[in-house]
Amino acid sequence: MQQLLNILSEEVGRAFAAAGYDASLGKVSVSGRPDLAEYQCNGAMAGAKQYHKAPFMIAGDVAAQLKDSAVFERAEVVKPGFLNLDLRKSFLCDYLRQMKEAEKFGMEKPDKAKTVILDYGGPNVAKPLHVGHLRSAVIGEALKRIVRYHGDKAIGDIHLGDWGLQMGLVITELQHRHPELPYFDPEHTGDYPKEPPFTVSDLEEIYPFASAKSKENEDYHKEALENTHRLQQGDPGLRALWHHIINVSVTDMKRNYQNLNVTFDLWNGESSVNDIIPGMVEDMKKSGQAYESQGALVVDVAEESDAKEVPPCMILKSDGAALYTTTDLATIKMRQEEYDPDEIIYVVDKRQELHFVQTFRAARKCHLVDADCKLVFNGFGTVNGKDGKPFKTREGGVMRLETLIKDIDEQMLEKIKTNPDIPEEEAEETAKKVALAAIKYGDLSNQASKDYIFDTEKFTSFEGDTGPYILYTIVRIKSILKRYQEAGGKNPEDLTVQEPRSVAEKNLMRQLCGFNAMMEDAYENLAPHRICAYIYALSNDFNSFYHGTRILTEQDESVKEGWIALLYLTESVLNTCIDVLGFSAPERM
Ligand code: ARG
What we know:
Largest sheet: 4 strands, antiparallel
Number of strands: 13
CATH class of the domain at 403-581: Mainly Alpha
Helix content: 40-55%
Number of helices: 20
CATH architecture of the domain at 403-581: Orthogonal Bundle
CATH superfamily of the domain at 403-581: Isoleucyl-tRNA Synthetase, Domain 1
CATH topology of the domain at 403-581: Isoleucyl-tRNA Synthetase, Domain 1
Distance between the termini: 35 Å
Shape: globular
Bound molecules: arginine
Strand content: 5-15%
């Protein structure tokens, strides 16, 4: 379906042309003064120079052409030459009826579906997820769903950090504690034990312990480096142990991501490309792009237009070890070969921007990726506490994601329990849903690149620009629709929207019409916050309408049916939006 503002602009453009002016002057936007008009066009102001005529006169000519417009019921000139426009109710109603029937509420399908890979999550094996992992998961999941809703093929890849020094550290500590384990015995023959020699809580204790120890103890650090190297070279015992670490850690991660309603199509990791690195490096050397510098292998990626220095990209360290950049380059190569993507989007902390600038440039220079594949770095800002510093526990430690979610679940449960109609079991389910909406909306409603303050009190409030407020609105609509049907009403899906009878109703209807344009915009700009802003405005418009209208007691059956149809459409649009954002509404709260 054509976007509403485009239809309006065409209509006004035709009026400009009919009056003898350039049709392109007819661009219409939502009015900046909603108290004076619904829409406005400033084209006469722009045309004044071109036609050597007072804008007021031009606007007057155009308004005269719009007198019998099927689209506008009012086109009024205001000084010095703006056109104030109001929609005709019949036109608005018609547009909404079409929208209700259309697939995806009238959002166009792409001519050709793209293949888009989203690289998000990016947790590191053997380290517990902390609050810093929240944004990548939440934003990445929303972007994947935005891309999918648009009609493209979206592939989410978690890109586990499963290959670096942290693996060597965990292995080294295990060796110190249990030197008798067969994994460390070079003489060992046959299979290794099926059961891991540790639990997830062991791992969580071991990693920070080993990490701290390696900072104080040079020998220990060296041992960890050696173990990392042996692992990467394929030592069978260390590989077997490493598999245990991955399995135990990934099982735990899956549970955490499931609680966040975040899923991945691919559970690849840095290690997945280990085998293709040597070949890739050879090719890079042969083409002359990679060369030796002070023992290391590097690729120059600086460009003349760089305002800040972009240092060469290091591919191999002097000891021959691969680096973070190396695995990312090989991953690009693998993705190119396996999926031939049109776009790869990375949802990673914005402090890693330089790494991605280097990686993307090196990938292009070395032809690891097709020239027409877009590489996008979608960097996000930090989650801060109320003090403006990175979010911490009350004791000042790193906030574990699990703890954060649990805290908010509990707070929410207290709130939900104040509703005596909700039985205990349902209350828990509901609290989880509302808590998730609080967390996700709190994050997604900010522009991703900005830092934001994690304000639990604000995020969990049922009022204001929050997830719970949106859910509350949906639940309110559900409850009206349910009562309507319980009283013998028809199936809301079969009812038809009628012309608006109040300003509030018209505003709600106009807001609904903006869905397709908003979704397109969220897709083009990879901007979940636009969806949040839209559903907040839509919820406000709905609640204004609701407070001024006695829906269920309306005597005129056809008027009531029109309202029920409008409620149903509002609920469907809100539900679609929150689904794209990655959360859902309970039946009641
Ligand atoms: N594991 C990385 C980290 O914790 C994030 C991975 C991001 N994705 C990527 N392809 N580099 O910093």
